[in-house]
Amino acid sequence: MSAVLLDGRSIARQIREEVKSEVEDLRQTGIKPCLAVLLVGENPASEIYVASKQKACEKVGIESQMLRLPASASEREILRLVSELNSDEKVHGILVQLPLPDHIDELRVIDSIDPRKDVDGFTPENLGRLLLGKPYTVPCTPAGIVELLRHYGLQVEGSNVVIIGRSNIVGKPLAALLVQKAEGYNCTVTICHSKTRDVTWFTKSADIIVTAMGRAGFLKADMVRSGSIIIDVGINRITDVTAPKGYRIVGDADFDDLRDIASHITPVPGGVGPMTVAMLLRNTLKVARSSQWNR
Questions:
Q1: How far apart are CA 268 and CA 249, in angstroms?
Q2: Within this chain, do residues 91 and 207 fall inside the same structural domain, yes or no?
Q3: Residue 8 to residue 270: CA distance in whole angstroms
Q4: CA quadruple 56, 130, 266, 242: dihedral sign
Q5: Structural domain span for residue 67
Q6: How far apart are CA 103 and CA 77, in angstroms?
Q7: Low pLDDT (below 50) residues in the chain
C-alpha cells in the first residue's frame, strides 16, 4: 500500500483562511499587521522566496514592505536599516532574508532584530526561549512540521525522531521543539549530520525521519523501516530535459523509492514548503496582536 501523502498545501490553505479572519478582526481595533522584508543582493532563490511571502501576505490582508539593498551594502547599512524598522511602530514583523552576502555577519544582523518583531524566531533570545520551552515565536519550518503531523493525527509523543541536518533554521530548533516536556511533543530526538558515521543505523530505528540536508534523493528505502513517517524539508533543483523549464524540484528523500514502504510521506513540492509560509503569516499575526500590549 502506498504511503499517505501529507498535503501541506491544503492545510496551509486552511491556516491562511484562519489568519485572514483574525487579521480582519485585528484591523477593527485599529491595528494593521505589517511585515517588513529585507533582501540584500539578487540571489535568484531568495527573490522567489520573498515574492511568495509577499503574495501570501497580500492574500490574508497583512501589509508587506519590501526593502532592498545591493549585495555591496555594508554591514553598518544593514544594521542601520534594521534599527529603523525596530523603531517603526507601523512595522510589526521583521524578516531578513537569508543567506546574506559573505562579507556580512549573519548572526550580528539577526541579533539586531527586536525579538518582539522576530517573525522567523531566529534571534538568540527567541531560540533561547524555545530551548527553555517558553517560545515567543517558533521558527517557521519546525512549527510547520509539527502542525502538519498534528493535523493528520499522527502519534508524536514517545516517538523516536531522527533529523538529518543540523542547521539553525530547521535541524536544531526542530529538535529543541520536539524534545519539550509538553503534550504533543515528548520525543526522543537524534540529529544526524555530515560527520555521522552511519546514518542508516539511526534511521532504521526511527518512527519519524526529517530530512533537511540539501542532497537530492539521499534517503532511500533500504535506510528506513516499514511504516516510518518521512518529512522531507529538502528543496533541490535537478536537470530534467522533459520538464518545461528544463529542471524539476525534488526533496532529500527518494519519493518513488520510499512511497511503498513509508506509512506517511510529504511530497516535494507541496509538503513542508507551504506550511513554512503559513507559519510565517501566523507569527506575523502574533507579533502584531502583541503590539497592542507593548504600546
A1: 7
A2: no
A3: 6
A4: positive
A5: 30-114
A6: 13
A7: 295
